[in-house]
Amino acid sequence: MSIYLHFRAVAESEIRDDHTWLAAFMSEAWENDDAEYEAGIAHSINKGWDAVNDLYAAADALYTDADEPWNLPIYGGRPVPHSADADPSDPPLMLLEPSGVSQAARFLTTISFDELWNVVEARFGALGWSKQEHLEHHRALQEFYGQAASAGHAVVKAVWA
User: Fold this and answer.
1) What is the tens place of the pLDDT at every residue in 77-95?
2) Whole-angstrom distance, CA of residue 75 vs CA of residue 73
3) Which positions ≥6 away from 140 have C-beta within 8 Å?
C-alpha cells in the first residue's frame, strides 16, 4: 500500500477555508499530479515524509539560535478541520499560509544539507535510509517551496492512502 503526502501551491485568494472544498480541490490536483508537478505547483513524498521531517529536525540541534522553523516544510501549517457534513474518508488537510511558505523556502535554502546529514547519518543508516534519497527530497522541496514563495502562494497538504 502506498501513502503519500501531497503538496499543492495555490494563490490564497483561490482557496476556501473549508475541508470539503479543499478535499475536492486536492483530489482533482492529485488526479493531475504529473502535469502539476511539471508546472512546479505540486510535489509529493511517498511514505518517507516523516523521515524527511526528522532530517530537518536536526536543525534544532545545529542552530539553537535559529529563528527559522524547521518543521514548516513537512508538518507546517494549520489543520483544516472536517465540517459536520464532510465525508469522513476525506484526507487530513493542512494549510500553510504564504508567510509560512516564505519561511519554509528560506529555511530550505539556508540550511546545509550536509550538516543535517552529519547529525542523522548513523541513525538513518541503521534504518536503511540513504543520503541520496534524502538529498533528492531536499532539493525537490527547495525548488517547490522556492517557486511557491516567489509566487506568494499558500501550500495545501493532504495525505493520500
Assistant:
1) 999 998 777 777 888 999 9
2) 6
3) 43
**Cα dihedral 18, 78, 137, 5 in deg (nearest 10):** -40
Give the pTM. 0.93
Give the pLDDT confidence of 108-121 residue by residue, as tens digits.
Answer: 999 999 999 999 99
User: How far apart are alpha carbons 128 and 107 in whole angstroms?
Assistant: 26
For every residue of the chain, DSSP letters joined together read ---EEEEEEE-GGG--S-HHHHHHHHHHHHHTHHHHHHTTSEEEEESTHHHHHHHHHHHHHH-TT--S-TTHHHH-SEE-PPPTTS-TTSPPEEEE-HHHHHHHHHHHHHS-HHHHHHHHHHHHHHTT--HHHHHHHHHHHHHHHHHHHHHT-EEEEEEE-
